[in-house]
Structure formats: structure tokens, C-alpha cells
């Protein structure tokens, strides 16, 4: 079955702009999580959506937002971009297996803010 | 403060030998641990997991050991192969979140290089 698809794979923006990233989960997966990966901070949890509702949120400013559609596809948006927002943004979908959640990640969207 | 720590940023091992990747955690509420590996330009992929009710879980060449008293887990790869060269992430979740939540806490990763 198809994996998690993220678009775009690479993008360059300038400070102050906004960006929208898209994620299509594995068919049947209703949970979508977003992570930011930077060299110094590793994988940082942004938020998780389940059935179009944000179920959990990490410690990121309000400039970072997301949503999930009825087909489980998700988008995240970052407004008023800052240089420090340059990172790999990873989306993961999941289903509970053996009592815990195994995440399947997409290849990521690499954002560069100039 | 890092609740999940992978103190070795990198590790180099000869092909055929054992690779041991270590992970320490500080939160005693963590009760489920996962290892993911990541190749460049790809997202992390799930490798193996262990529940706190066990102290060992094995899947082929990969074995994870959990020492709860020391709050330490390790991933053993035997024998190591060049294709195992990747970044390995340790992640943990607590009992409040295990069934309903994807808020895993991640280490910073260890880059493993397996030399032919």
C-alpha cells in the first residue's frame, strides 16, 4: 500500500512569509502527527490530529498551526516565517499495534527560510 | 531538558561485528520504547519496540534490551551490515499516552556507520 506522502519535498521561503505543507497518510490511518527535525533539537512534536480534531499539541508558538480533512489528509501552516523555522518537517500516520502506536513517516518537507 | 538521551552522536563498527546503540531516559513514567532508523532524505522507519513489562525483545538481527532500574535501553545489531548505516533514534512514551496519543519523546539520534 502507498506510504505517507508529503508535499512539497523542498521549498525556500523568506522571512515573514507563510508556508503550507501537505501530508497524505496511509489509507486507513486516521491519526496524523507532525514533527520538526533540526540538527540540534532532534525530532520535536508539533501536533497530532485524529478525525479532524487536534488531539495533542507540542510546545510551539501559535505561528504553527494545522488541520485535518475528512479524508484524513492533513496540512500544517507556519506564518510569519523566521530563520529558525528552517528544518525538516515530518508527517507521520499511525494505527495502534500491539498496544502502542507505531508511526509511519513520510520523507519530509525540507523548508529553508532565507 | 532532554528526557530521552542518546549520548553517542556517532558510532563506527566493522561489518560482521556487533553494533550497540544506547539510550537513557529520565522519566520513570515511560513504559514503551521504540527504535527508528533514518536514512538521508527519507523519514524515520520503525525498527523494533519494547514494553516495560519485558527486558528483551528480539527481531532477527535486532535486539532491544531494557534495564528499568537504570532507565537504560540498548539496541544490538548482530551481525552489522553496511546497509545498517543510518541514524538511529530512540523514542519513548508514557502510560498516559500509549494507547491514544502520538506524542513520543525522541532522543537526538546516533549515526551508525558500518564499514565493509
* Distinct helical segment count of chain B: 0
Overall helicity of chain B: under 10%
Question: From the helix content, strand content and strand pairing of chain A, which structural class follows?
Answer: mainly beta
CA distance, first residue to last residue of chain B: 37 Å
Span between termini of chain A: 37 Å
What kind of assembly state do the chains in view correspond to? heterodimer
How are helices and strands ordered from N to C of chain A? EEEEEEEEEEE
Largest interface by Cβ-Cβ < 8 Å: A-B, 29 and 27 residues
3D shape of chain A: globular
Order of helices and strands of chain B: EEEEEEEEEEE
Description:
Chain A has 114 residues and is mostly beta strands. Chain A contains no helices and 11 strands. In chain A, a hairpin with a 2-residue loop joins strand 5 and strand 6 (53-57). The termini of chain A are far apart. The model of chain A has no long low-confidence stretch (mean pLDDT 91). By secondary structure, chain B is mostly beta strands. Chain B is 0% helix and 54% strand. In chain B, strands 2, 4, 5, 9, 10 and 11 form a 6-stranded mixed sheet that branches. In chain B, strands 1-3-8-7-6 form a 5-stranded antiparallel sheet, with no helix packed on it. Chain B is globular. The chains are: A mainly beta (114), B mainly beta (116). The interface between A and B is medium-sized, with 29 and 27 residues.
Topology:
The complex is a heterodimer of chains A (114) and B (116).
Chain A: E1 5-7, E2 10-13, E3 19-24, E4 31-38, E5 42-50, E6 53-57, E7 64-68, E8 74-78, E9 87-97, E10 100-105, E11 109-113
Parallel strand pairs in A: 2-11
Antiparallel strand pairs in A: 1-3, 3-8, 4-5, 4-9, 5-6, 7-8, 9-10, 9-11
Chain B: E1 4-5, E2 10-14, E3 19-25, E4 30-38, E5 45-51, E6 56-59, E7 62-67, E8 72-77, E9 86-94, E10 105-106, E11 110-115
Parallel strand pairs in B: 2-11
Antiparallel strand pairs in B: 1-3, 3-8, 4-5, 4-9, 6-7, 7-8, 9-10, 9-11
